[in-house]
Structures are given as structure tokens and as C-alpha cells.
Write a structure and sequence with these properties.
The protein is α+β, with helices and mostly antiparallel strands and 122 residues long. It has one domain (4-114): Roll (PH-domain like). It has 2 helices and 9 strands; from the N terminus they run E-E-E-E-E-E-E-H-E-E-H. The protein has helices spanning 66-71, 96-114; strands at residues 4-9, 11-12, 15-16, 27-33, 36-42, 47-53, 57-63, 73-80, 87-94. The strands form 3 sheets. Strands 1-4-5-6 form a 4-stranded antiparallel beta sheet, with helices on one face. A 3-stranded antiparallel beta sheet has the order 7-8-9. It is globular, with a radius of gyration of 15 Å.
Length: 122
């Protein structure tokens, strides 16, 4: 059974995206479950929904510039074996190091449940 671990979204200029009103700020909404990371990109005129299975995640990196550190936001880059989107960047995420760790832990558990192990060249 799929359960939600955490939901988060983009923070443009330290402002959380709005859901209502005449002027909609483009945003990306993310939902991390125990099975996958769901991505909902909402533009002014378009909407895209996609997801990535957690067991396909290979590496996760946080990128922060100086101003991002001051506002505690950053980009999270996910490298995966997903053929449609091997590099996924979660943009302007609040508290990116905590979110990165939650994704890493969920990915680790999903790999264990799927019986997937990997070896690295040492």
C-alpha cells in the first residue's frame, strides 16, 4: 500500500506558490511516498505530472548558492536509471538537506523491499 511520507513544493524568492487567484506563480509540487516521487509541474498555461520509482534512484545532490543558503532553499538533483527522465532537478526546495535525506532513506527502503542490491567498483 502506497503511503505519503512528505509533500513539498517550490519556493520562489522565499514565497510559497499560490493555488488560487488571478496571477498564478509557476510552481512544482512534489509528493514522496514509500514507492515513488511524484512531480506535478504547474505553469501559467500548462501542467505536467510525472513520477519516478524510488528503487531507480542512483544519486542525490543538493545545490545551494550563497543567497539560497540564507533563505534555506536549494535544488535537489536526482540521478536515476529512469529512461524517460534520468536527471530530475527539484527546484527551490525549502530545507533541501532534510528533504534529500528523506528521499535517500525512502529509496534505500524501496530497494530493500524490491530485493535490489548494487555493487560499486572499489
Amino acid at each position: 500500500m502506497e503511503t505519503t511520507i512528505v509533500e513539498f513544493e517550490t519556493h520562489l524568492f522565499g514565497i510559497k506558490g499560490n493555488k488560487e487567484g488571478m496571477f498564478k506563480i509557476p510552481k512544482e509540487h512534489y509528493e514522496l511516498t514509500n514507492e515513488r516521487l511524484k512531480v506535478n509541474k504547474q505553469g501559467v498555461m500548462t501542467q505536467t505530472k510525472s513520477d519516478i520509482e524510488l528503487y531507480k534512484i542512483k544519486d542525490i545532490t543538493v545545490q545551494q548558492k550563497l543567497k539560497d543558503k540564507a533563505m534555506n532553499v536549494g535544488n535537489i538533483e536526482i540521478i536515476s536509471s529512469d529512461e524517460s527522465d534520468p536527471v530530475l532537478v527539484l527546484k527551490n526546495v525549502k530545507d533541501p538537506h532534510t528533504i534529500r535525506e528523506q528521499i535517500r532513506e525512502a529509496s534505500k527502503k524501496a530497494k530493500q523491499e524490491a530485493g535490489i542490491s548494487y555493487r560499486q567498483n572499489v
